[in-house]
């Protein structure tokens, strides 16, 4: 595993510590509807404050396109952040650089915390402008990155500043990197990957990379339809990238060459229309009616996948295996999620999952806190699965 400094390597007493976090949380009518990301960054902020650091929190929020926009202000997040910190006061600066930011940072005493305004109010942030990075760095003595979810972007606050100040990973970043290393970097074998979702084309890099890393590759969701079609299976009116058939064949060939067992559904839940409560039936995968759509894997597939996972030591999961948001097409994903949770609880499986739809599916199954590690990182998690270098992580390894 690549080496990087952690909070244990810092001496933050009396120092101004810039902490890059991800407060890009869902907000409706001015209220946070899911505070998971806020809660997860609390251990880092509390640890630094307890050591007498003057904590300066940096984050983006939404897509204001480089201009100040009240809709994307971080000010409404001051109260939720303070609440997550057990009521500890959080100061707020009306900008992330310049006089407003400097004044608030200068007012901090040891152990106090401030949140600066949205980094993306400045176009220089996403451009990784060196001058902007220097402006940010001037506000701190040390830099901590606790935003793995933004680590796939080479922005001023995720990559630029890390080269200008002594840098370390926060507790959330550290946990994420250790979990990912345990899943694919240096895993206990056999290793399984479960990849779902709608299209092979959107996960082509992932599939091509991961077949050389795992012993078992389970493919579900509509993307499985494309691989089945490439094998000559009639998938009826199912979502299917027929023009990707040759690509699908090449993925199977790569898996075979790498000694990776490829598992596809053996049965499916089909319906004539895609809506909640639609009439459905379970059919063998080679018996899909011409006028029907595959909308979930069937019970035999769930059982076959679960039995295969029982023989594995490690699982990395990205993507649902059916249209889980719409009943009755959630049973396959929920069934597998619960079996994975059981294996994890029994100490038989190290399970790491990530990606927006995956996290939502695990929550729907009631097991989002029962896997070894669940990443909320989205794009960064996917790019890591594709074997790409993440600039925000690489900058910590200098």
Structure overview:
- The chain is α/β, with parallel strands linked by helices and 398 residues long.
- It folds into 2 domains: 7-172, Rossmann fold (3-Layer(aba) Sandwich); 187-385, Phosphoglycerate kinase, N-terminal domain (Rossmann fold, 3-Layer(aba) Sandwich), CATH 3.40.50.
- Helices cover 35% and strands 17% of the residues.
- It is built from 15 helices and 17 strands.
- It has helices at 36-50, 78-84, 98-107, 123-126, 130-137, 156-160, 171-185, 204-210, 222-230, 245-257, 299-309, 331-345, 356-364, 379-385, 391-394, and strands at 16-20, 27-28, 31-32, 54-58, 90-93, 113-116, 142-145, 167-169, 191-195, 216-219, 261-263, 267-271, 280-284, 293-297, 314-318, 350-354, 373-375.
- The chain has a 6-stranded parallel β-sheet with strand order 5-6-4-1-7-8, sandwiched between helices. Strands 11-10-9-15-16-17 form a 6-stranded parallel β-sheet, with helices on both faces. A 3-stranded antiparallel β-sheet has the order 13-12-14.
- Strand 9, helix 8 and strand 10 (216-219) form a beta-alpha-beta unit.
- Helix 11 (299-309) runs parallel beside helix 12 (331-345).
Quick synopsis:
The chain is α/β, with parallel strands linked by helices. 35% of the residues lie in helices and 17% in strands.
């Amino acid at each position: 595993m690549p080496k990087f400094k952690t909070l244990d390597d810092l001496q933050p007493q009396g120092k101004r510590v810039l902490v890059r976090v991800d407060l890009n949380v869902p907000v409706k009518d001015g209220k946070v509807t899911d505070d998971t990301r806020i809660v997860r960054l609390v251990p880092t902020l509390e640890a630094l404050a307890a050591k007498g650091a003057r904590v300066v929190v940096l984050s983006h929020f939404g897509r204001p396109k480089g201009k100040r926009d009240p809709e994307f202000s971080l000010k409404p997040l001051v109260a939720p952040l303070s609440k997550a910190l057990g009521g500890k006061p959080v100061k707020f600066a009306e900008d992330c650089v310049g006089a407003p930011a400097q004044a608030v940072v200068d007012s901090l005493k040891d152990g106090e915390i401030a949140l600066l305004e949205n980094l993306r109010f400045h176009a220089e942030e996403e451009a990784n402008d060196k001058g902007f990075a220097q402006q940010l760095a001037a506000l701190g003595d040390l830099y901590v990155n606790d935003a793995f979810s933004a680590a796939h972007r080479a922005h001023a606050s995720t990559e630029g500043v890390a080269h200008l100040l002594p840098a370390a990973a926060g507790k959330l970043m550290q946990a994420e990197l250790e979990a990912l290393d345990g899943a694919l970097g240096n895993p206990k074998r056999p290793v399984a990957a479960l990849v779902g979702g709608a299209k092979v084309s959107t996960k082509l890099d992932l599939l091509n990379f991961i077949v050389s890393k795992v012993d078992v590759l389970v493919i579900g969701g509509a993307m499985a339809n494309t691989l089945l079609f490439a094998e000559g299976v009639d998938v009826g009116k199912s979502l299917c990238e027929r023009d990707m058939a040759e690509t699908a064949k090449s993925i199977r060939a790569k898996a075979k060459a790498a000694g990776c067992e490829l598992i596809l559904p053996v049965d499916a839940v089909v319906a004539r229309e895609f809506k909640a409560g639609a009439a459905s039936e379970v059919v063998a995968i080679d018996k899909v009616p011409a006028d029907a759509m595959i909308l979930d894997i069937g019970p035999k597939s769930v059982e076959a996948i679960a039995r295969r996972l029982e023989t594995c030591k490690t699982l990395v999961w990205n993507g649902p295996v059916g249209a889980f948001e719409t009943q009755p097409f959630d049973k396959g994903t929920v069934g597998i999620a619960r079996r994975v949770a059981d294996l994890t609880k029994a100490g038989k499986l190290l399970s790491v999952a990530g990606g927006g739809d995956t996290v939502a599916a695990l929550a729907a199954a009631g097991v989002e806190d029962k896997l070894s590690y669940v990443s909320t990182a989205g794009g960064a998690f996917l790019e890591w699965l594709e074997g790409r270098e993440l600039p925000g992580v690489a900058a910590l390894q200098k």
